[in-house]
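Q: Here's a chain of 95 amino acids. Please give me its 3D structure as tokens.
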Amino acid sequence: MNQYYVYIMASKRNGTLYIGVTKDLIRRVYEHKNDLVEGFTQKYAVHLLVFYEIHNDINNAIQREKRLKKWNRAWKIELIEKENPEWNDLYYGLI
């Protein structure tokens, strides 16, 4: 069974947020952390994985990503802090 990930990266606690979806979370976060992806995360130094969730269907994952992107900032922060109150970088727990 395939797994897909919706994830939130941050520049720092309460900093700039980025929401994405991927099939390979470890690879994708590594790319963000090492500025291998040109664009938003590189420009704003968004390198901390602060939230992720797993989906078994790519369409559900994409739909969830789109919904989260429309949320206001306070809701996004509340979601992060519910699962990760210290805003720890979750990447190192994955590798």
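Q: Can you summarize the key feature?
A: The chain has five helices and three strands.
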